[in-house]
Structure prediction request, 224 residues.
Amino acid sequence: EVQLVQSGAEVKKPGESLKISCKGFGYRFTTNWIGWVRQMPGKGLEWMGIIYPGDSDTRYSPSFQGQVTISADKSISTVYLQWSSLKASDTAMYYCALPAGTPYWGQGTLVTVSS
Amino acid sequence: QSALTQPASVSGSPGQPITISCTGTSSDVGSYNLVSWYQQYPGKVPKLMIYEGSKRPSGVSNRFSGSKSGNTASLTISGLQAEDEADYYCCSYAGSNWVFGGGTKLTVL
Prediction:
């Protein structure tokens, strides 16, 4: 059974760094693209970017290029989403997901950035 | 890479059909048969309802169907039921990444 299991909710202050994770189970992790989706409070879904864990080829959506870093550690079947300096506007639910057209999503990680 | 365009809201009475449109460009919807549709209830993870334009995953009601014409994809729900009230998002491959629509809130009257 395919599962994507994300790390727990985070509460951070503006300017702090953060790295959240998503671990894949039940499928060939290294040969499947996996991405991150943002959903701000009361708003829609936004694809942030995708990574191919086999060679770490990463594609960012233009709105997120330079704002976050997506990485993968194929030895532990885990992808990451990282911020170097959080802003209040980064407050959102973040989902990892296999590319659109598959039903496989993580449970979501709520990130709250507040002073 | 702009978001796909969906109506903000649609509504219908139980038993009626409704259609939600999703307009993109020749760089996304128009170029690939890779449009998918997701249903999302408040506070829940999105659920795949249609993939590759018109295919239904196992377990999804056959009341849900998808189609495409040019740069516009559509989701049709026949025989609306109260449980269909949710947010719906289209998503398309766009050459090097994916792009969502802005979402449509479906209200069952």
The beta strands of chain A are 3-6, 10-12, 18-25, 34-39, 45-52, 57-60, 69-73, 78-83, 92-97, 109-113. The two ends of chain A are 40 Å apart (CA to CA).
